[in-house]
Amino acid sequence: MEDLTKSVNKMIAEIEQERRASKEYPVELPLGKYCDHTVLRAYTKRNIVKKFCKEGKEHGAASICVNPVHVKMVHKELAGTDIRTCCVIGFPLGANLPVVKALETKLAIEDGADEVDMVINIGALRDKDYDAVYQDINAVVNAAEGKAHVKVIIETCYLTKEEKIAACVLAKEAGADYVKTSTGMGNGGATVEDVRLMKRVVGEDMLVKASTGIMNREDVVAMVKAGAVRMGTSRLVQIDTGDNDAYCASNENQPPKI
């Protein structure tokens, strides 16, 4: 715990003292390859998830990101493509016990997940219980056993600048592959400022995913320039085509009228 606190405080001090301009990263086309085409609403039917898979294949998504119950089906739908199957863990609150997140990770990988996006224990982070946050993340990393990339959702909308830095340091120390801004279920989403900050903290040792509020090509370009290499978005079609009015599966994925 003491070493983790020192690592966090050291990074906070370094960021505060840094005066150089943030690096601008190059953007490559097509933009679809940056997108984790995401469908996570509680009311989503299987046929909608299949439509997301179809769009992913048509528009060159990086992955299709789904809840655990859909992983096996998505893995089958994506067979023979380079598109990865992504599964959320401890979603959306992050308040599960580490052993539950670890089991969820293990089962998702058995069903075909190539990537897992886990939500941290946000309350523990705000309490500065860094050991608990580290153990939470590390449990998922260990359960993944190198068979799936681990993305750590820190839910930036609930955190101060110092807490965002702490979350990124702990994710790095715990051996994760990515840090990610948001679940899409909080009260805010990705910002260029947060992506820049997260990339400055993790450096070239980890990757950054921007999620929530990525609506068009301009948003993707801005986030990539800031340091993100993945986008959590349901607007893959609009982003790939440049047509913001294009019809897509997310248009059909609306709350049921009872």
Helices and strands in order, then pairings?
Blueprint: H1 2-17, E1 35-39, H2 46-59, E2 63-66, H3 71-77, E3 84-89, H4 98-111, E4 115-119, H5 122-126, H6 130-144, E5 149-153, H7 161-173, E6 178-180, H8 192-202, E7 207-211, H9 217-226, E8 230-233, H10 236-241, H11 249-252
Parallel strand pairs: 1-2, 1-8, 2-3, 3-4, 4-5, 5-6, 6-7, 7-8
Helix pairs in contact: 1-7, 4-6, 6-7, 7-8
Give a short overview.
The chain has 258 residues and is α/β, with parallel strands linked by helices.
Descriptive overview:
- The chain is α/β, with parallel strands linked by helices and 258 residues long.
- Helices cover 45% and strands 14% of the residues.
- An 8-stranded parallel barrel has the order 1-2-3-4-5-6-7-8, surrounded by 7 helices.
- Helix 9 (217-226) links the parallel strand 7 (207-211) and strand 8.
- The radius of gyration is 17 Å and the shape is globular.
- The model has no long low-confidence stretch (mean pLDDT 97).
